[in-house]
Amino acid sequence: MQTDPAATAMEQARATKNPLRKLYYWTLHWADTKYALPALCILSFAESSFFPIPPDILLMAMCFARPKMWVLYSAWCTVASVAGGVFGWFLGWGFWGMTQKFFFAIVPGFTPEIFTKVQQLYADNAFLAILTAAFTPIPYKVFTVAAGVFAISIPTLILASVVGRGGRFFFVGAVIRFIGPKAKPFLEKNFELATLLLLGLFFAGFAAIKYLKH
Fold it and tell me: How many domains does one find in the chain?
């Protein structure tokens, strides 16, 4: 009898007491269901404007599950992320006065000082600032919302986001496609360490904003 990967992942999630591994197996469960692509799009959209968890984790799990679909998954992840970035722009443009306390509270490391620094970066080169945030661990959502607050043109936001987000997600998908079978055992064995490294990159991204050239 053929094993159902989604059911197996859920059984593993229930069996382990490690909360990080529960999250990992739960994510793998989504990757092997018919809801994987909608879940990826929703996560990618939300992360671009307000949600703290990056979509890379689910994208990686889906590419592990179906390596030949990596181009499709990376493309949809990019489209949803850019759309979420535009949504973030509108939040900043029209609702910043009502939502700024929410953003400062919900996004770790997001402070008024960081926001002021982003404004300085936009005054220097808005396209480069957005592209850099879109591709690197620097929090992209901060730049999309700030783009609306500081009235950066939407074409600039979209073009920089397509290049940056597309480059990032297609890179992740390609890595999993071509070296994934070798990397998966290592990632599963060292999952806690990999998670801590991802969190470290997230917070390092905020720190990097302070040191970007103005």
Answer: 1
